[in-house]
Amino acid sequence: MNKNQEIAEIFDKIADALEFKGEDSFRISAYRKASRILKEYPEDIEDIYKKGEIQKIPGIGKGMAEKIVEYLETGKIKKYYEVIEEIPEGLLQLLEIPNLGPKTLNLVYNKLGVKSLEDLERVIENGQLVKLFGMGEKKVENIKRGIELYKQGKERIPLGIALPIVEEIINELKKYTKKIEPAGSLRRMKETIGDIDILATGENNNEIIEKFVTLPFVKEVLAKGDTKASVIVKTNNLQVDLRVVPPDSFGAALQYFTGSKAHNIKLRGMAKDKGLKISEYGVFKGNKKIAGEKEEDIYKTLDLIWIPPEIREDRGEIEAALSNKLPSLVEESDIKGDLHVHSKYSDGVETIQEIAIKAKTFGYDYIGICDHSKTSKIAGGLDEEGLKRRNEEIDKINENIKEIRILKGMEVDILADGSLDYSDKILEQLDFVIASIHQGFKKNVTERIKKAIENPYVDIIAHPTGRLLSGREGYEVDIDEIIEYASKYNVALEINCYPDRLDLNDINILKGKAKNLKFALGTDAHNIGMLKYIKFGIGMARRGWLTKNEILNTYDWKEMPLRRKR
DNA sequence: GCCGTTTTCGGCCCGACTGTTTTCAGTCG
């Protein structure tokens, strides 16, 4: 964990404590905001500190800057110890229980001495909680359900799992609605999704809501009103919220429910300065509605051009839109080929010919076949002889299929000493080379990747951090150093599109962009059904503000700015 | 706690739903 993360977590804990104490909510949100800024900040806060520019970061003022400096110099923040004094350890963790907020937690602590989850469960069982002023049967019941959800541990799920669920729901509800679209972090293509937000408009609100809460895969209905309903679906215990709005508010609602929260708060502040009010129903001047049907009109009322959902994170996009400096983000139609696909020669399912035929349906000009190299025995890695046979087959297919070019790539293992799995003589015969770590995740990874980057035949480093969203932490690697080094040697870093990887992710892409790094999109497909994962990588690239020129796959093969041309 | 040529003080996004209130507080997003 780097310093940015460490400080962010302390700020979050301070916010929890202040909330528990019932202190000024604006001060609390200042801590939350500072925490978010630090977590997402593309540079190491220590470097900013050395430049003396901490307070230049918007959202970080004098107070926060002092605390950050205090942490960097002493490893502690006094304020933190002040605010958690007298609060029993572990108590604030209970704030994660749904339906149990700071007010109620404070109440049960002060009136009933609840200090832990066990205490809380006890006062529910023995009837003490329900007797407290402001409590009641239903509130207690809700907290009880909250405890159940808390124990199940509701984790964010990968975008790749959430998207099919959303598509299924939308498909079911389509016939009852005029318009229905996903919003929230899913529309922003965030790598993981907490809740799913869906927005609809139609003739009969009640019917839409009713159909929604009675869908066969709904497990539990959490809330149901005239305009909104929340349910838990059977898959992954995911919460899905549906909002139904009038047609002339659809754009405003889409904008509002797409978020992010920080992006919206800033927009609303700007609206206020102009004497306007934004809500999910529209933009209002006094009582008069001046926008609402179309999303871009919401932005127009603030003198902004429409901002793509993927970058609505309050990371400078509003300022960029104001000065007309929004980048023209890469589009799906810019992509001319996939640069990381496995064939039957190693651990892929289909033949090269089959892959080529499928790739054509994506409108690709080329496809990069990258099988595993010999050390990856489990993955059917190819020895020199096998590689030769594969390359000969590619040559043959290229003669027969003219509409798409098959590129001879390989995903070559970086060995324990940083050398590659094939000799330079072998590497030279390939169209391009991807190098990657597949073993020794904790052994000198940074140095090994740097050595691979130094090899003149390496064009791309695959899944540079090795993290898996399903749980694996990733290699022990200094990604900042790799970005710096790759940029220096003109080696591209991969944006691996596989839903469990999405590696590099948005934050690391932003870091790379700042260093003029080049990127390569690769699905890492092991069967042709996975070629569609390219859209997740594009989502990640867009979240990282990338334009097409920064991505190898948008170039014609002959013009592709690979490290060197062969 | 942050921020600012309409403010260095006094603002700070806005609304739905729920349950407990008899006009509103708490939680959530």
Notable characteristics:
566 residues; alpha/beta; DNA polymerase, domain 1; Beta Polymerase, domain 2; Beta Polymerase, domain 3; 22 helices; 17 strands; 40% helix; 14% strand; DNA-binding
Separate helix tally:
22
Reported by name, the CATH topology of the largest domain is TIM Barrel
**Strand content range:** 5-15%
Number of DSSP E strands: 17
Low-confidence parts, pLDDT < 50 over ≥5 residues?
A: none
Number of domains: 4
Helix content: 40-55%
Q: Report the CATH architecture of the largest domain.
A: Alpha-Beta Barrel
End-to-end span in angstroms? 40 Å
Q: What order do the strands of the largest sheet run in, or round the barrel if closed?
A: 11-12-13-14-15-16-17
Structural class: alpha/beta
CA-atom Rg in angstroms: 26 Å
Give the CATH class of the largest domain.
Alpha Beta
Q: Strand count, sense and closure of the main sheet?
A: 7 strands, parallel
The pLDDT mean sits at 92
Going by CATH, the homologous superfamily of the largest domain would be: Metal-dependent hydrolases
Shape: globular
